[in-house]
Write the C-alpha cells for this entry.
Amino acid sequence: MRLRNIPGADEAIADSPHCIQEPMAEKGRWHLIFGNENPIHIEIGMGKGQFIMKLAKEHPDINYIGIERYSSVLLRALQKMEIEPLPNIRFLCMDASIITEVFDKEEVAKIYLNFSDPWPKERHAKRRLTSRQFFERYDKILAGNGVVEFKTDNDDLFAFSMEEVAEAGWTLDAHTFDLHHDPVLNEGNVMTEYEEKFSSLGHPIHKLIARRSF
Ligand code: SAM
C-alpha cells in the first residue's frame, strides 16, 4: 500500500503523541511506555490500522504496536486516533528490517503479518516478511511460546511462507487455505482493509500460525 506523498504527513507523525519517534531508545523498556506489564503484540505492515485498532479496542489488557514504513499510510491511523484515542496502542514509522534494534529478547508475545507485500522476484525473497531472514529476527524478539500469525490471499506467497516456517525450524500450529470457511480459525477473526477488499472479490484468504521453538 503506497499512497501518494501527503504534504504534512511526516510533520503529523513527528508531532503525534501516539507515535514513538525514537523507537530504538525504547528497546527493553516498552512496558514503561504503556505504564503496565501487559503482553505486547505487534503488527508489521499495519497499513491504515483498521485491524490493530479493532484488536486494541477489543483487548484493553494487551498492548499493541503497529509498524508501518510509509508516513502517508500511517497518517490515516493517526487521524482515526484523534477521533477515538486508545490508551493501549502506539505506532512506529519504520522499516521492519531493524526490528531487533527496537525490541529486546522476549519483549513481544505475538506478531501479526497481514497481506504483506509479496516481492515476487526471487532475488527479493529475503525482503518478504515471512522469509527465513525475517523469522530469524522474530526469533530474537518473541517470548518463549510466541507466535506469528500471517494472512494473505496470495497463493505463491503463502506456499513460500509455509516452506520458510519449516526451514526456520518453527512449528506450524495451524493453517487454512480458506479462513472465512474454517469454523475454528475464523472464530473472532478481525478483517483487515485488504482482507475486506480481496474477499469481496471472491479470493479465499489463507492463514497460518507459526510458533517458535524454544
Ligand atoms: N496490513 C494491511 C492490510 O492487510 O490491510 C496493509 C497491507 S499492505 C499490502 C502492506 C503494508 O505493509 C503496506 O502499507 C507497506 O507499506 C507495509 N510494509 C511492507 N513492508 C514493510 C516493512 N518492511 N516494514 C514496515 N512496513 C512494511
Observations:
- The CA atoms of residues 54 and 210 lie 22 Å apart.
- The first helix runs from residue 9 to 15.
